[in-house]
């Protein structure tokens, strides 16, 4: 995947901070969070390959969590982002953790990362994949009409938002544009269902946060994350669903800044120690 074709928006000053969205989403999912970060950090908000304005690799080429990770690593090299802070949601969280395990992150903050599901969660993801493949065969005009019906919109609010009855959740609906044969979402979902994070310890500050109302990747997955990422700071986001950037952008921004500051403090100490005469 060509890193020069990865679309992104940037702003702010300071150490670089890269924000990675979830499966089927795009960089705009961070819109309510970014203004709370740019005073302290140089923020890069990217569209992952296949989503937003970034093209997917051609059919037949490898396309999974690991190739996505390599694409983001190449993006960071291209823009000379050395050990950037990383934050990600869902698929983006998995990529951030993989990069952290490779020693390529200054800090890692993730929200409901994929790769820690138990049997029930894995079954749910496989079921989503099955329905997505079936939906791909339905004509697009019919899909659009079905997605706009009250039952479908209610289901979208329930699945994606922490409080489905909130005024902010009213506009939530499933995007069906990605439900076409060979589309990036269709290609990726089987890999997400079978993916496990097994990379081991991460030598930088890590925060793993989970919405207590996440109905996509169940909060019980946090127990697996706690065991597989020793030393990570574990956080429960009360009232948030699978996309906490929409439910509680203030808390999301504060947890990102907390993790970044923990890394920055350690970095400054290391620089001071290295500069002292021995």
TrEMBL record:
Q: Name one GO molecular function term.
A: hydrolase activity
**Which residue range or ranges hold the AB hydrolase-1 domain?**
17-253
Ordered alphabetically, the record's keywords are: Hydrolase
Name it: Alpha/beta hydrolase
Q: Does this entry carry the keyword Hydrolase?
A: yes
Which InterPro entries does the entry link to?
AB_hydrolase_1, AB_hydrolase_fold, AB_hydrolase_sf
């Amino acid at each position: 995947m060509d890193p020069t074709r990865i679309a992104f928006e940037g702003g702010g000053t300071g150490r670089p901070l890269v924000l990675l969205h979830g499966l089927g989403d795009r960089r705009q999912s961070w819109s309510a969070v970014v203004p709370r970060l740019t005073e302290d950090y140089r923020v890069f908000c990217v569209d992952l390959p296949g989503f937003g304005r970034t093209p997917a690799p051609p059919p037949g080429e490898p396309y999974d969590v690991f190739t996505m990770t390599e694409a983001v690593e190449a993006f960071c090299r291209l823009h000379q982002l050395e050990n950037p802070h990383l934050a990600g949601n869902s698929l983006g969280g998995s990529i951030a953790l993989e990069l952290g395990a490779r020693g390529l992150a200054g800090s890692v903050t993730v929200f409901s990362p994929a790769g820690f599901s138990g049997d029930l969660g894995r079954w749910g993801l496989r079921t989503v994949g099955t329905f997505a493949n079936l939906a791909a065969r339905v004509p697009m005009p019919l899909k659009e009409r079905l997605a706009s019906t009250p039952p479908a919109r209610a289901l979208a609010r329930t699945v994606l938002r922490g409080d489905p009855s909130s005024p902010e959740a009213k506009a939530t609906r499933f995007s069906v544009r990605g439900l076409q044969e060979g589309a990036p979402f269709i290609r990726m979902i089987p890999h997400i269902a079978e993916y496990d994070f097994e990379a081991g310890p991460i030598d930088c500050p890590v925060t793993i946060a989970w919405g207590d109302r996440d109905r996509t990747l169940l909060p019980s997955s946090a127990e697996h994350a706690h065991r597989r990422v020793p030393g990570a700071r574990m956080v429960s986001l009360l009232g948030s669903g699978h996309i906490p950037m929409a439910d509680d952008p203030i808390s999301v921004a504060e947890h990102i800044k907390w993790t970044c500051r923990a890394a920055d403090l350690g970095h400054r100490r290391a620089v001071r120690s290295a500069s002292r005469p021995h």
